[in-house]
Structure formats: structure tokens, C-alpha cells
Amino acid sequence: MFGTVNSFQFTAMNTVTLKDLDNQQASSGNSMLTMVQMLSLSLGTAAAAAILTTSAGEFTKKMSGLTLLPSFHITFLSMGAITALSILIFRQLSPLKPAFENIPEPSPE
Hints:
single chain
């Protein structure tokens, strides 16, 4: 399930990012997109680790370390909320125009 959702998300981001680039810019744009995706995955992992560590510390103090399951629940919900905030960025995009509108007409010979 997680892989399917990631696939949809990355496909949508690829489309939005690369749709306005011509052939000369597409390679550089794809490299930039890949770098940003790797950076976001790294930052997401670091954020999840920070949330888990913080919440685990709180629950360990309160419950004498009996269970860490609530810490994982908090982390999962927090990361879901952070991911859902990306909607605010994607809502700022203009409506998509068909990709074929960006292709220049062939010159008559």
C-alpha cells in the first residue's frame, strides 16, 4: 500500500515538475527533481526519528518504559500530517494544461 501511494505521488510530482521543460532542460530538471526527492526522503527520515525519540522519551518517563507503541502511533500520525501539508503547496499550482501544448509545431518544409 505504501509503495503504491509513493508511486502515485512521485509520478504526479514528476509530471508537474517536468511538463514545462523543453528537451534541453529536461535532463537538468530531472537531475534537480531526483536530488530534491532524495533530500526530502532524508529530511523525512530525520523528522520521523526526532518525533519518535521525543515521544518515546515522554512515554518512557510516564509509563516506566512498558510500551513504546503510543510513540509509534504519534510518529505515524505526525508524519501523515506533515505530508498532508504538502496539499497547501500543490494547491498554489495553476491548472494543468495538456503536455502537448508545450510541443512546438514542426516547421513546414
